[in-house]
Design brief:
The complex is a heterodimer of chains A (364) and B (359). Chain A is mainly beta and 364 residues long. Chain A has three helices and 28 strands. Chain A is globular, with a radius of gyration of 19 Å. Classes of the chains: A mainly beta (364), B mainly alpha (359).
């Protein structure tokens, strides 16, 4: 078993490295630059572009807690969104140009995630139309101060994470399914929540495909996703049903194929504490990592074979970003740790004075 | 057969752990509601009743004594509010009540700008409590009232005159609004209320709390984030990394010189929740005697803050006092972590930076 796994990893790593060679060779020499939101020891929120050896490259203080980062495809700027139910967003150039701030409409708030169109001209974001009790994808003009130029329905409640497939036209949306309002507590529809994974044509806003879970799994809120090789979506869930159920939380879907949710080994499955906080694909797109901050675990999965590979321990660990090396990830934690690891174990670990937020990305 | 036996033995070992000290979630909810939440909001309502009364009296008959009485009542209301400020759940979290009562922090000074605007225009909408409730939250609560009673031009309240009369009726309208919110919160937690039912009897189909453990987590969040509130928002940010970087105007209630009283009140709320709400027992069941050391740390912090008898800006530029406060911040962090680790482990809770539902 152990040998199988190792052999598989080596073969996966080498094939991915070969595929990635033209760009990858140059990139592998440079140290990675990552971006993430965080909080410092005085409670000040910021978003930072940073490298593991060099520290901060650029930071911007935020008016509240940030969440995920979206990278403009040409790598010239990155955007961080307010954590729900915040309303601010800020685009930060990688050079010294000033940041561009924007906000949601008054009756909306961000859920904290977004994605750029492939030409870099439009920014999509997940938003809550709470009076209308529906999820919205906001559309902003990235070439003109991030002014909002439109929106379309998310075809589900509580859109959280979004990405574009390789065609640049199909958006996949993780609809968490839970109805909330910023001016009231609680989750207003747990008994009949209906999470979904939907595919939407961004040019028309039309629903192209909708994947719902089996009725007995309707408490399984689909929240985070990553696009792996071959447009395979890897997604992570949070279970809002009885705690002791501990259902599988990491799933895969590819258009036209059935959706599968794969259990981890029992001990790890229980260790998830019914909560996956972030999902990321590695540089080659054949391995994904899924973090469980409540359980203090990060797990690794083989995309091709839809198979569990291994686990790292990291208390309050949530943020995940690919590194330049195949199968390897940066792991960030609320307790300040920045860890480089893969399914075989940790290769580096350093501390910092920040509580790192739920998500991180590789910028270059 | 041997393998089966080994498996059974292992299973027993594994399961023996969590069963050792089962946390009584229902008892924590009950004690917290009866011993902490209800009395603290009742005290707030009593204080806002008196505040409303004293501000109305000031407007009716302006005098130096009447202004002082209104200020004293304001300080009493700040004390009472500070105890419950750590609770961000329940009726106070409905309809923006929390922000209406306490719009803070306000780093862009939105409140001050709106107040000055309303004063300059003599906006009649702010002198009628019913209309005020529909205005910006920055005009409705304790920070706005603080500016009217202590900020530039407040001395005129003691002598009267046209401008002072408008300012006073604005203040009086805020006092009435704040009193109304406090009353609503007391009722919202009352016998037979939806909140009481959900808090004491959480159920899967309830809209607020689904399991007993969620209620414990809510209370635990108030404890842990209450400590963080003082450490970061009340002290860390306004103190800044050095005297040169201090931003004393980020301190809460600096106009009235009640910044430290506010932080003391917050920690008293935290301490009360810990000692009377059931968490001290949870800690002692796991590690006997540790609850005393946590309470000692909290009380020590309260004592140090009580010794800060200068305005926040002066404290922030005094190296000796800064060092005291920085040491206090470190002590609070360790007390919070010690308690947090034990409570999270014993009550089987997750409360990391990244463990919030919905993220």
């Amino acid at each position: 078993m152990e040998l199988d796994r190792r052999a598989l990893l080596i073969s996966l790593a080498s094939s991915a490295a070969m595929l990635a060679l033209p760009d990858g060779a140059a990139a592998a020499i440079q140290a990675e630059c990552f971006a993430a939101a965080r909080k410092d020891d005085r409670g000040i929120y910021s978003a930072a572009l940073f490298s593991l050896n060099g520290g901060d490259v650029r930071t911007v203080e935020l008016p509240g807690r940030g969440h995920d980062i979206a990278l403009k495809p040409d790598g010239s700027e990155w955007v961080t969104f307010a954590r729900r139910p915040g309303r601010f967003g800020v685009a930060i150039p990688v050079d010294s140009r000033p940041p561009v701030w924007f906000a949601t409409k008054p009756d909306r708030h961000f859920f904290g995630h977004g994605a750029f169109s492939f030409d870099g001209k439009l920014l999509y974001s997940t938003e809550n139309d709470y009076d209308g009790a529906r999820g919205i994808i906001g559309v902003r003009d990235a070439t003109d101060g991030y002014q909002q130029v439109g929106e379309f329905p998310a075809h589900g409640m509580e859109p959280h994470d979004i990405q574009l497939l390789a065609d640049g036209r199909t958006m996949v949306i993780a609809n968490g399914g839970i109805r909330t309002r910023p001016d009231s507590e609680g989750e207003l529809n747990l008994p009949d929540m209906q999470p979904s994974l939907v595919y939407v044509d961004v040019e028309t806003g039309d629903l192209m495909e909708e994947q719902r879970l089996a009725p007995e799994l309707h408490h399984l809120s689909i929240r985070h996703l990553a696009i792996a090789a071959g447009d395979t979506i890897a997604f992570g869930c949070q279970y809002r049903g009885p705690e002791q159920d501990a259902p599988p939380l990491v799933g895969f879907h590819r258009r036209g194929e059935p959706l599968v949710i794969v259990p981890a080994p029992d001990e790890t499955q229980i260790g998830f504490r019914n909560y996956i906080g972030s999902v990321a694909a590695d540089a080659g797109g054949t391995i994904v990592a899924a973090s469980a901050p409540k359980g203090g675990l990060v797990t690794y999965w083989d995309v091709t074979n839809r198979r569990y590979l291994g686990v790292s321990d990291l208390n309050d660990g949530c943020g995940l970003a690919p590194t330049h090396r195949s199968a390897s990830f940066l792991l960030t934690s609320g307790e300040g740790w920045l860890v480089t690891a893969d399914a075989e174990g940790e290769s580096a670990r350093q501390s910092s004075n920040y509580s790192w937020d739920n998500h991180a990305i590789l910028v270059r | 057969l041997i393998r089966l036996l080994v498996a059974l033995l292992l299973a027993q070992v594994v399961w023996a752990g969590p069963c050792r000290a089962e946390t009584d979630h229902a008892a924590i909810a009950k004690a917290s509601l009866a011993e902490v939440i209800r009395p603290a909001y009742a005290a707030l309502a009593a204080a806002t009743f008196s505040l409303n009364d004293k501000v109305a009296a000031l407007c009716k008959q302006p005098s130096t004594d009447a202004l002082q009485a209104a200020k004293d009542a304001f300080a009493g209301a700040v004390d009472a509010w500070s105890n419950v400020e750590i609770f961000r759940f329940g009726p106070i979290a409905q309809d923006h009540s929390y922000e209406r009562l306490f719009f803070w922090p306000d780093p862009k000074n939105l409140g001050l700008r709106q107040i000055e605007d309303a004063l300059a225009k003599k906006d009649e909408g702010v002198t009628d409590p019913a209309k005020l409730a529909a205005k910006s939250v920055a005009l409705q609560g304790l920070p706005a009232l603080e500016y009217l009673l202590y900020g530039e031009g407040a001395d005129g309240l003691a002598t009267g005159g046209e401008a002072a009369a408008f300012r006073c009726s604005f203040a009086s309208s805020i006092a009435a609004n704040v009193d109304g919110i406090a009353k609503n919160v007391v009722e919202g937690w009352g016998d037979g209320s939806d909140y009481e039912k959900s808090f004491l009897g959480p159920a899967p189909d309830n809209a607020i709390y689904h399991t007993p453990k969620e209620v414990t987590l809510e209370l635990f969040k108030a404890f842990a984030s209450g400590i963080e509130l003082v450490r970061d928002q009340k002290l860390g940010k306004p103190l800044g990394a050095s005297a040169d970087e201090a931003k004393p105007k980020l301190a809460a209630f600096w106009h009235s010189n009640l910044s430290f009283a506010n932080a003391i009140g917050n920690l008293q709320g935290v301490s009360l929740l810990f000692s009377k709400g059931g968490f001290a027992q949870v800690v002692d069941a796991d590690s006997p005697g540790v609850s005393d050391s946590i309470l000692f740390d909290l009380n020590h912090a309260i004592e140090v803050l009580g010794g800060m008898n200068k305005p926040f800006a002066e404290v922030a530029s005094d190296p000796e006092l800064r060092a005291k406060l920085e040491a206090l911040r470190v002590g609070l962090k360790s007390a919070g972590q010690t308690a947090g680790d034990i409570i999270a482990r014993s009550a089987d809770l997750s409360f990391g930076f990244n463990a919030m539902d919905g993220d």
